[in-house]
Specification:
Blueprint lengths: L5 H16 L5 E4 L4 H6 L7 E15 L2 E14 L5 H6 L4 H12 L12 E10 L4 E14 L1
Parallel strand pairs: 1-2
Antiparallel strand pairs: 2-3, 3-5, 4-5
Helix pairs in contact: 1-4
C-alpha cells in the first residue's frame, strides 16, 4: 500500500459519492462542524450527504510502518415533507440514498491503495418534523511509513 494522506482518501470518498448519487442529492460535502445546526439553518441544501471523519488509530505492522485505520461517517439528511415514513421509503428518500452510498463505498478501494471500505453500521441519528438524518459508518485502512 502507498503512503497516502487522509485528505486524499476523503477526496476520493466525496468523488465516489458525487458520481454515484448524481442528481439524487443537492449537497455532497465534507463536514466537521455542528452538523445539526448547519442542516437546520439550511446552510446546505437538502437532501444532503455529509462526510465526517470519526476517528483514526494506528496499529504497528513493522518497525517503521503502521496501518492507519480510518473510520468515517456518511450522514444522509432529508426534509420529511410528507412524514417520517415517506422520508425513508419514497423516491429520493433515505433508503434510496443510503443504497447509493453503499454502491459508492462498500467494498470499494476508491482507486487508491487502501483496503476496500467496510460498512460498519447504519442507523437513524435524528427524526423530527423538519429533518430526518441517518448515519452510515465506514472503515478503511492505509499504510503509513515512517
Amino acid at each position: 500500500m502507498a503512503d497516502l494522506s487522509w485528505s486524499v482518501v476523503e477526496e476520493a470518498i466525496l468523488g465516489a459519492l458525487e458520481a454515484e448519487l448524481g442528481s439524487l442529492v443537492q449537497t455532497v460535502a465534507s463536514h466537521q462542524g455542528n452538523w445539526l445546526e448547519d442542516l437546520q439553518s439550511q446552510a446546505r441544501r437538502l437532501p444532503a450527504v455529509l462526510v465526517r471523519w470519526r476517528q483514526s488509530r494506528g496499529e504497528q505492522v513493522a518497525l517503521r510502518s503502521s496501518d492507519l485505520i480510518l473510520d468515517f461517517v456518511v450522514l444522509v439528511a432529508v426534509r420529511p415533507l410528507r412524514g417520517e415514513t415517506e422520508a425513508r421509503v419514497e423516491e429520493g428518500g433515505l433508503y434510496q440514498i443510503l443504497e447509493g452510498v453503499r454502491r459508492a463505498l462498500w467494498l470499494q478501494d476508491l482507486g487508491l491503495e487502501i483496503t476496500p471500505c467496510s460498512l460498519e453500521k447504519e442507523e437513524p441519528w435524528l427524526t423530527t418534523r423538519e429533518l430526518a438524518v441517518y448515519g452510515a459508518e465506514y472503515r478503511t485502512i492505509l499504510l503509513k511509513n515512517f
